[in-house]
């Protein structure tokens, strides 16, 4: 399953069922999110419309035909079970992290902190993809109130995505614009350096069927 948010994911699952049947080999289908719900949260679909229902029906078909299903969390498993899938057929494989890379926190890099003009902080940070459901607009909107209480606070946003342009415009128009830093996407090998600068990680996801399930 190449992506949790691409319609091709379900189609790849259907292709795998066909290939598995012809070759006589088992098919394991992985689900990290339901595409139809991701489309609603990303603004590219509407809940309950024809495309939503067709995608959901095709996913049910692929799940029924697969020999085993793997999901990342109990919420997805419960939803599939409610649709009629035998829970014994579903294995949970939660998202994880390589402790060899992140087992011990790296020391903050003073030069990087100075280049980003983070000052004394504290630094509030988000590292990830800039989708609407992540709620980063709410985080930016909260910064003026935070600055009034903690004048040296900074917001550090690392990553990119569909909402980046709108978020940058919102930040530029904010009374707290001087306290907000956009870094853009960084190489995976550099991510730890930015984690080390952050005092509080903030993930203000908006509530939706997608975020409730995963």
How would you describe the overall organization of this protein?
- The protein is of the alpha/beta class and 214 residues long.
- Helices cover 43% and strands 15% of the residues.
- It has ten helices and seven strands.
- The strands form two sheets. The protein has a four-stranded parallel β-sheet.
- Helix 4 (74-82) links the parallel strand 2 (68-71) and strand 3.
- The radius of gyration is 21 Å and the shape is elongated.
- The two termini are 16 Å apart.
- Mean pLDDT is 88; it is low at 1-6.
Task: Note the topology.
Blueprint: H1 8-23, E1 28-31, H2 35-41, H3 50-65, E2 68-71, H4 74-82, E3 90-92, H5 99-102, H6 110-115, E4 123-129, H7 136-149, E5 154-160, H8 164-173, E6 180-184, H9 191-195, E7 200-201, H10 209-213
Parallel strand pairs: 1-2, 2-3, 4-5, 4-7, 5-6
Helix pairs in contact: 1-3
Distance between the termini: 16 Å
Secondary structural class:
alpha/beta
Strand order of the largest sheet: 6-5-4-7
How much helix, percentage-wise, in residues? 40-55%
Number of helices: 10
Strand content: 5-15%
Question: Outline, from the CA principal axes?
Answer: elongated
Q: How many E strands?
A: 7
Over all CA atoms, what is the radius of gyration? 21 Å
